Amino acid sequence: MACLDQLISLSARLGRDLDLVQAGGGNTSLKQDGTLWIKASGKWLIHADKDDMFLPVPMADIERGLAAKDEKFQEYRTRSGVALRPSVETTMHAVLPQSIVIHVHSVRTIAWASRADGQEGLTQRLQGLRWRWIPYTHPGIPLTERIQQELVHRPDILILANHGLVVAADDCAAAETLLQIVEERIGVARRETAAATDTSLAELAAGTAWEVAPDAEVHALAASSRSCEIALGGTLFPDQCVYLGPGAGILEAGETPTQTAERYAARYGMEPVFLLVPGRGVLTRKDLQRSARELLFGLKRVVERIPEHVDVTYLPEFQVARLLNWDAEKYRIEMARAAN
Ligand SMILES: [Zn+2]
């Protein structure tokens, strides 16, 4: 039988894997005796075994909220008495019948779920498993209602287009095993292996608000024209625009980082978080937050798994605007920033 302590250690384990969880993304839950134990909004799974973050939400409260289409959940208290709001994805967990639900922003899944041929490609790879492809739907009640339409197929796996992965099972071990099976089956060769950065990147940033991105791995995002093209094309998944902005800034020939940032700000109405220097690497703001730093890993690992000659599907602009103006999302971002 599933228990909360098992879920907590599973959650922390998932949270430590940047291929599955970046920053405050992803959430896990347990159903027990009419209660949904769910991660609090904005909390990071990586801290699950140190920071009490699971809230007991009565299933009746969730059903009432869902019927009234009311997403503004009240605060509930963790076992240690801290009052917090439940995850914005609470209703999605509640409508799945399995005891354990894991939702992660798996980079392997998002890479497939951002391809125009993704559903077709996964049909072969996930053969024999009960899975459904869920077209992109705004997180929260709209996504939950879209998932409800698929429950007649009794899925154990949901591929959320341009968003991530959900696996569900009746105990923690089975859920974790299922997650591993999916991750193994959908793995693809990565296009980029390394980026050659040199001192010219640091020279470019000298005297500006920019610096060479602190994590060597993310420079591969600017290594090839294909990766730059994918990153520039728009938003592949919600947390990308939430933490890294609605687009990517890219240095054009002869431009300084400051000029690129100004061009970006004029277009998007906000400062860029990172700049691509084609063939050379990535610059990040000097005040880069840990959440953005983790999302850069996520973006790079998604982009390098999208092959050369496939069509990429981006979030439509109205969906990006909806994510950036979303009240529940603002609360989550505030919490995530306060926690780190
Ligand atoms: Zn999500």
Summarize the structure in words.
With 340 residues, this protein is of the alpha+beta class. Helices cover 39% and strands 16% of the residues. It contains 14 helices and 13 strands. It has helices spanning 4-15, 59-67, 90-95, 107-113, 118-125, 141-148, 172-186, 199-205, 225-232, 238-244, 257-268, 290-303, 317-324, 327-339, and strands spanning 27-32, 35-39, 54-58, 76-77, 83-84, 100-104, 131-134, 157-160, 164-169, 210-212, 249-250, 274-277, 281-285. A seven-stranded mixed β-sheet has the order 3-2-1-6-9-8-7. The longest helix has 15 residues, at 172-186. The relative contact order is 0.15. The model has no long low-confidence stretch (mean pLDDT 94). Zinc ion binds at residues 25, 89, 103, 105, 139, 163-164.
Could you list some keywords that capture this structure?
globular, alpha+beta, binds zinc ion, 13 strands, seven-stranded mixed β-sheet, four-stranded mixed β-sheet, single chain, about 350 residues
